[in-house]
Specification:
Oligomer: single chain
Order of helices and strands: HEEHHHHH
Number of helices: 6
Distance between the termini: 27 Å
Radius of gyration: 15 Å
Strand order of the largest sheet: 1-2
Structural class: mainly alpha
Helix content: over 70%
Largest sheet: 2 strands, antiparallel
Shape: globular
Number of strands: 2
Length: 171
């Protein structure tokens, strides 16, 4: 791992922790049994551009932050960010565009969060419809935000993109 990768991963992990710890009360939408914290996926999504290790590291930070603030159910849901980020980063490493990788990990994200709440007593309907569909909508909103931030960073000549990745498969 390069120092640059480690620094970017650390900065995005700090942001992943700050969102629930500092901004959670301002950014949280809570419609029982569903909750969503706006922009909470942004650090994980951006870390996918750096490396699989960075994405997994940031995913752990996200899960820790939510576990500390909101407890085990939402903390477990946030742990799915580890899988989502790692998978997205591997897709980008294989040459998929950032946008396509975000689209391809959406089902993993929504289904993963729906399944992870079942052991906590959620009904199949609440898990699938409320958590699964809610997560998918939240994923889409944060994906648009992540793409916008990434484009702004690129315009400022600050590119997070993984080094040595093949030509993009699709935009």
């Amino acid at each position: 791992m390069k120092v640059k990768e480690l620094v970017y991963a650390a900065l995005l992990t700090a942001l992943a922790l700050m969102i629930p710890l500092v901004f959670g009360t301002y950014l949280r939408i809570y419609i029982p049994p569903f909750s969503a914290t706006l922009a909470s996926h942004l650090p994980v999504f951006l870390s996918m551009l750096i490396s699989p290790f960075a994405a997994i590291f940031v995913g752990f930070g996200s899960a820790l932050g939510f576990f500390l603030v909101t407890g085990p159910v939402i903390g477990a849901r946030a742990a799915i960010h580890i899988l989502v980020g790692g998978t997205g980063a591997l897709l980008i490493k294989k040459g998929y565009s950032f946008k396509l990788a975000l689209l391809l990990v959406l089902p993993i994200h929504a289904i993963g969060e729906a399944l992870i709440v079942l052991p906590f007593g959620f009904s199949l309907a609440d898990a699938g419809i409320i958590v699964g569909v809610g997560t998918a909508l939240h994923h889409v909103a944060d994906a648009f935000l992540a793409v916008a931030v990434y484009e702004l960073l690129k315009a400022a000549s600050f590119d997070l993109k993984q080094e040595g990745i093949p030509k993009q498969i699709s935009n």
